[in-house]
Write a structure and sequence with these properties.
Length: about 260
C-alpha cells in the first residue's frame, strides 16, 4: 500500500466518516468502514460518534504517531447512492489495495456526484407514493390525487430546503399542501377511497430512515446517536402531523 502519514489519513477519515453519517449510514457501518480503511494503510483508529460531530484519533502502528481531528456532520440529507458509493470505496481500498491519492480522488468524485436530477427524483417520489396509495387499497382516482399531492408537496420541500428554511417548518408546510390536495378526492367525491387518498398523501414525508437507524444504533449501544436520531424523527413526525391536521381542518375532511 502507498505510504501516508497519520495527519493526512486522519483528515481524510474524519471527513469521510462525517459525510457517510450525513448520507444516512448507521453508526455500526460508519465504525466498520472507517476501521477497514485505516487497517488497509497499517493504522488503527479510536472514534467517538456524536449526533452532530465525529471525533477521530488515528494511530500509526509503524511510527507511533497519534493525530486527532473533529469534524461536523454536514446537513446534506440522506442519500442512498452516496451511502452505497462510500461503503464501496472502503472495500475497494481494502480489497483492491487502492492507493491514498486514488482514494482521495474517488472520494471527492463521490461527494461531487450529482446522482439523480431533481426533476427525476420528483417524478419518482410521486410515482412511489401513488403506488403506496394503491398498496393500501386506493383506487385509480385516489392514486392520481396522491400523485399530484406528492408532486406539489415534494416540489415545495425542494424549494424551501434550497432556501435554507428550517426543516421542521418545511415538513409542516409540505404536509399541509399535500393534505389539502389529497382532501380534494373526499371534497369532490372523485373516487371511492377518499380516506386512503388523504391518509397516504403525506406518506412521503414519514422519516422512516431516522427511525430505523436509531433502532440499529441502540442495538449496537450507540445510545447518544440512537436517542438523537429518534428525537429528530419524532419531531419531524409531529411537524408532519401538525401540517396534516391543519390541512384537514381547512378542508373540513376527516378519515375517522
Amino acid at each position: 500500500m502507498e505510504q501516508v502519514n497519520a495527519a493526512d489519513m486522519c483528515r481524510f477519515l474524519v471527513d469521510y466518516g462525517a459525510n457517510l453519517m450525513a448520507s444516512g449510514a448507521t453508526c455500526i457501518r460508519l465504525d466498520k468502514n472507517v476501521r477497514r480503511i485505516a487497517a488497509a494503510f497499517g493504522m488503527d483508529v479510536e472514534m467517538t460518534v456524536m449526533p452532530r460531530h465525529i471525533h477521530l484519533t488515528v494511530i500509526d502502528k509503524n511510527t507511533g504517531e497519534v493525530i486527532t481531528s473533529i469534524s461536523k456532520v454536514p446537513d446534506t440529507g440522506i442519500s442512498f447512492e452516496q451511502n452505497t458509493e462510500l461503503s464501496r470505496l472502503s472495500w475497494e481500498i481494502a480489497d483492491r489495495k487502492m492507493g491514498y491519492a486514488d482514494a482521495v480522488r474517488r472520494y471527492e468524485g463521490i461527494k461531487a456526484g450529482g446522482g439523480l436530477s431533481a426533476w427525476s427524483l420528483l417524478l419518482l417520489v410521486s410515482l412511489a407514493n401513488a403506488s403506496f396509495c394503491r398498496l393500501f387499497g386506493g383506487d385509480i382516482a385516489a392514486m392520481i390525487v396522491v400523485g399530484v399531492a406528492t408532486l406539489a408537496g415534494y416540489y415545495m420541500k425542494m424549494l424551501l430546503l434550497s432556501h435554507k428554511v428550517d426543516v421542521r417548518l418545511v415538513f409542516m408546510v409540505c404536509s399541509f399542501v399535500s393534505s389539502v390536495i389529497g382532501a380534494t378526492d373526499m371534497l369532490f367525491s372523485i373516487g371511492s377511497t377518499p380516506d386512503v387518498a388523504l391518509g397516504t398523501s403525506v406518506l412521503y414525508l414519514v422519516p422512516g430512515i431516522p427511525f430505523l437507524n436509531s433502532f440499529s444504533d441502540m442495538l449496537y449501544r450507540h445510545y447518544l446517536c440512537a436517542f438523537a436520531r429518534f428525537a429528530d424523527a419524532l419531531i419531524l413526525t409531529c411537524s408532519l402531523s401538525v401540517g396534516l391536521c391543519a390541512g384537514m381542518w381547512l378542508m373540513k375532511a376527516s378519515i375517522f
